[in-house]
Design brief:
Blueprint lengths: L9 H21 L7 H9 L2 H9 L7 H29 L5 H5 L2 H4 L4 H4 L10 H11 L12 H25 L3 H4 L3 H8 L1 H21 L4 H11 L16 E7 L10 E2 L2 E2 L2 H7 L4 E4 L2 E2 L6 H11 L9 H4 L8 H7 L3 E5 L9 H7 L4 E3 L11 E2 L2 E2 L1 H13 L5 E6 L24 H26 L6 E7 L9 H8 L5 H6 L5 E4 L7 E3 L3 E2 L3 H8 L22 E3 L5 E3 L2 E4 L2 E4 L5 E2 L5 H19 L6 E2 L4 E2 L1 H7 L2
Parallel strand pairs: 1-10, 1-11, 4-13, 5-14, 6-7, 6-10
Antiparallel strand pairs: 2-3, 4-12, 8-9, 11-12, 15-16, 16-17, 17-18, 18-19, 20-21
Helix pairs in contact: 1-3, 1-4, 1-8, 2-9, 3-9, 4-8, 11-12, 13-24, 19-20
The chain binds (2R)-2,3-dihydroxypropyl phosphate and manganese (II) ion.
Manganese (II) ion binds next to helix 15.
């Protein structure tokens, strides 16, 4: 072949095309990514391109053809190796590599000798593009001569690269709004921004939290610790240990807001089962209880329950700080001999749960692979709540006791789609399809909860358990205020919006004869101390910001992640102060002391998380390990 017949930079074009096509083939052959529509397919096709163009494009700056070609071969090899590493990792963990995983050697403990067994000769395919490039260079002698590229052409090349990146990001934003601020799921990230960009994104998130951690000086703990100790609430003697030794079943009720409880929709009761619990002799029902989640939604509520700390203001703490040291409720219960687990029939990497649960010392995650999702068992986001509960109870039956199982429901999730046979009441009749369907899907979840209680009784697990249930976060956003105001028969002011953040909270202790409606203002941050005290576990040394709701010292002060708050007398929302009784706006001075305390408390929580301060805290003695902190300083 004569050199002249190949246009200049054809090796660059060849490399781009080869790596692009190979990556796309690998997406389809090596990963099990659910592609639901044409748009997702298009995104998947274009998403490797921006990074490939960029990284190979750097070769345009090299004048020496030898160096340039060597650079292209090296890059193709590195990209292939990264993709191949992901493919092998995926064979084991059905997940994509994230940086912390590379440093958590325990993950590789599982690999053992079988690692070698799952590397095949055919894996050579992952390096096809490298081979093509080398063949082209060596035998076809493409790219031996390179003419100098005009700066204008080079500029046009990188403008095109940027344009493709923005097109990619734009399409992803349409497909999955807020993907980059909230992360959601590794699979979703790879599906949308591509495997190479995903690693850059991961690098950015991890290095940001790493830097904050490195800068943290353990001495910050002194102030935080003083604050925590002075806000400690003594357990209520009558309630402490009431459920000692029992199994703990915690249910996260997806998107369930309090306004549906003891309410009807065009004459249809929305939550007949939960309503019956509000009157039950063994159930405490908290009617002024608030969610405190941020962008991490369900995962933020899990974070609150496990740690009694606030989630972060930006991004999902499950993604950003899964490498931290935590003293979770699971860890405390492990020490009490509990078998701790989470049950949730979704992809395990969603909300980075597979990683975060290790940090939270949760012994087992029953993800979608622990369930048999038969024909007709799935709707909307995945497995329906009723079969999910049925199979979960069967799994519980096999667990060593006492166990702590946290079950996360899924059906009542936006967009609240249901199969016809599960629609137990008609839709509502507002201008919001979302709200209209919401009532139906809440009604279905209520039915599922009833079946859960029945299943537990049938399997003989009920009497020796305590069942705690909470709504994880709002389901109806402020975009549906018009429809909500039609339903509630009043205008939705910022005050009303704040009050709509109430989620139901139930503590059900079978055969205890203890139960009533409690109107005390409280929030998700209080769940952990409340539960641990009921189980007879002391929390006096815990680094937690919530308080036992049964304690006389529990303060009626709930802080929202955005700095807003509710007390028994005041509501602070949208920078305005309201009388909690009347809903009337009042002068800001009344709220000011609480505004300051809210920002102080959120600040302390953020310090603990960003500085990974619990690594300097000895839970057993309550001592601050400041000497070690000194040593760790660079
Ligand atoms: C996903 C489920 C829903 O596994 O927990 O998450 P959400 O979108 O409600 O945060
Ligand atoms: Mn949720």
């Amino acid at each position: 072949m004569r050199k002249k017949s190949w246009p200049t930079h054809s090796i660059l074009v060849l490399a781009i095309v080869a790596t692009w096509i190979k990556t796309y083939i690998v997406y389809h052959t090596s990963f099990d990514m659910k592609i639901e529509n044409m748009m997702q397919q298009v995104i998947l096709l274009i998403n490797p391109l921006s990074f490939i163009l960029f990284i190979y494009g750097i070769s345009l700056f090299f004048k020496n053809p030898k160096i340039k070609n060597r650079y292209i071969v090296t890059i193709s090899f590195i990209l292939s190796a990264v993709l191949y590493a992901n493919a092998v990792f995926y064979r084991f963990f059905t997940d994509f590599i994230t940086l912390p995983v590379l440093f958590q050697t325990s993950n590789f403990g599982d690999l053992g000798t079988s690692a070698v067994e799952s590397i095949y000769w055919s894996d050579i395919f992952y390096f096809t593009d490298v081979a093509i490039i080398i063949i082209a260079l060596k035998w076809l002698k493409i790219g031996e001569i390179t003419s100098v590229i005009k700066p204008a052409v080079r500029r046009a090349y990188f403008v095109l690269t940027a344009a493709i990146l923005f097109l990619n990001l734009g399409l992803s934003e349409i497909e999955r709004p807020q993907l980059l601020t909230r992360s959601f799921d590794r699979e979703m990230l790879v599906k949308n921004i591509g495997s190479y960009n995903y690693h850059l994104y991961d690098l950015y998130i991890q290095s940001k939290s790493h830097a904050q951690r490195a800068l943290a000086d353990g001495s910050e703990l002194v102030e935080v610790n003083n604050y925590v100790r002075s806000n400690q609430a003594e357990p209520n003697a009558e309630m402490f240990g009431l459920a000692k030794g029992r199994n703990l079943i915690v249910i996260s009720m997806e998107s369930l807001q309090n306004f549906v409880i003891n309410n009807d929709m065009n004459g249809h009761e929305v939550t007949p089962f939960l309503n019956s619990l509000t009157q039950d002799k063994d159930t405490f029902y908290f009617s002024n209880f608030y969610h405190q989640t941020g962008l991490g939604k369900t995962s933020d509520s899990e974070f609150l329950v496990e740690n009694s700390l606030y989630p972060l203001g930006g991004g999902a703490v499950f993604f950003t700080h899964s490498g931290n040291k935590f003293h979770s409720m699971s860890e405390s219960l492990n020490e009490q001999g509990y078998y701790t687990n989470v049950m949730h029939p979704n992809n395990k990497s969603f909300w980075n749960r597979d990683m975060m649960y290790q940090a939270l010392s949760i012994q087992k995650y029953y993800d979608v692979n622990s369930y048999e999702v038969n024909e007709g068992d799935a709707v909307n986001w995945g497995m329906k709540d009723i079969p999910f509960f049925e199979q979960s109870v069967s799994l519980m039956k096999e667990m060593p006791q006492p166990f702590y199982s946290r079950l996360i429901t899924l059906t009542n999730h936006y967009p609240f789609d249901l199969d016809e046979e599960d629609q137990l009441i008609p839709p509502y009749d507002s201008n919001s399809r979302t709200l209209n369907k919401y009532f139906q899907s809440v009604r279905y979840m209520d039915e599922a909860l009833k079946t859960l209680f029945d299943d537990l009784k049938e399997q003989g697990l009920y009497d020796n358990s305590i069942i705690v249930m909470y709504g994880d976060h709002y389901g109806i956003s402020e975009n549906h205020n018009k429809a909500m105001s039609q339903y509630l028969g009043k205008e939705i002011t910022p005050y009303e919006s704040a009050k709509l953040q109430r989620v139901p909270f139930f503590v059900h202790i079978p055969n205890s004869g203890k139960g009533e409606e409690i109107t005390e203002t409280a929030g998700q941050i209080d769940i952990r101390p409340t539960i641990l005290h009921l189980l007879g576990v002391e929390t006096a040394k815990d680094m937690q910001l919530g308080a036992d709701v049964f304690s006389d010292e529990h303060e009626e002060f709930v802080i929202f992640r955005d700095g807003g708050f509710v007390t028994d007398k005041l509501v602070f929302a949208n920078n305005a102060c309201y009388d909690n009784e009347t809903g009337e706006q009042i002068e800001i001075e009344s709220c000011q002391p609480f505004i300051d305390r809210a920002s102080q408390e959120l600040g302390y929580s953020d310090q603990i998380i960003n500085g990974d301060l619990l690594r300097f805290y000895d839970l057993k003695t309550g001592n601050l390990l400041l000497d070690q902190a000194e040593q760790k300083k660079p």
